[in-house]
């Protein structure tokens, strides 16, 4: 039986059913969180690490969740922030002072990922997405792949709907341009 987010939160508030509630929460949202993180960090192995950290943060923060936003929006924001922090750490470790290009790391991860099973067109699309600025990449993935509404994205990224629409528009134009350049 699927429980509502509110029912899961009520179970979590009771010490004797906290573990059960967290298990229900993971069962309900873990796959969506995995794919959100995967679109940001690209690598399956890195995604697993970030998802673990995300789950720990959700567990620690769930008791303080006050329903000011939807539960999934809150969890999505945590997963997004964890993924972005992971990339910044990875960039700093790979390039020292942070002068290196994150794009290089993501492209290398994409090209060497044994779990990527897309065709040539999908690979080219992913390469174009990886080259977008961070905000445009996030907005494009959430809007295009996750089919999220701008209001939902606004809650996650904590930015205006107008700015999101502009970011998405610019991302689409850049992706189209990059794909045209790569046509054979």
UniProtKB/TrEMBL annotation:
<feature type="domain" description="RNA polymerase sigma-70 region 2">
    <location>
        <begin position="25"/>
        <end position="92"/>
    </location>
</feature>
<dbReference type="InterPro" id="IPR013325">
    <property type="entry name" value="RNA_pol_sigma_r2"/>
</dbReference>
<dbReference type="InterPro" id="IPR039425">
    <property type="entry name" value="RNA_pol_sigma-70-like"/>
</dbReference>
<dbReference type="InterPro" id="IPR007627">
    <property type="entry name" value="RNA_pol_sigma70_r2"/>
</dbReference>
<comment type="similarity">
    <text>Belongs to the sigma-70 factor family. ECF subfamily.</text>
</comment>
<dbReference type="InterPro" id="IPR014284">
    <property type="entry name" value="RNA_pol_sigma-70_dom"/>
</dbReference>
<dbReference type="InterPro" id="IPR036388">
    <property type="entry name" value="WH-like_DNA-bd_sf"/>
</dbReference>
<dbReference type="Pfam" id="PF08281">
    <property type="entry name" value="Sigma70_r4_2"/>
</dbReference>
<keyword id="KW-0731">Sigma factor</keyword>
<protein>
    <submittedName>
        <fullName>RNA polymerase sigma factor</fullName>
    </submittedName>
</protein>
<dbReference type="InterPro" id="IPR013249">
    <property type="entry name" value="RNA_pol_sigma70_r4_t2"/>
</dbReference>
<feature type="domain" description="RNA polymerase sigma factor 70 region 4 type 2">
    <location>
        <begin position="123"/>
        <end position="175"/>
    </location>
</feature>
<keyword id="KW-0804">Transcription</keyword>
<keyword id="KW-0805">Transcription regulation</keyword>
<dbReference type="Pfam" id="PF04542">
    <property type="entry name" value="Sigma70_r2"/>
</dbReference>
<dbReference type="InterPro" id="IPR013324">
    <property type="entry name" value="RNA_pol_sigma_r3/r4-like"/>
</dbReference>
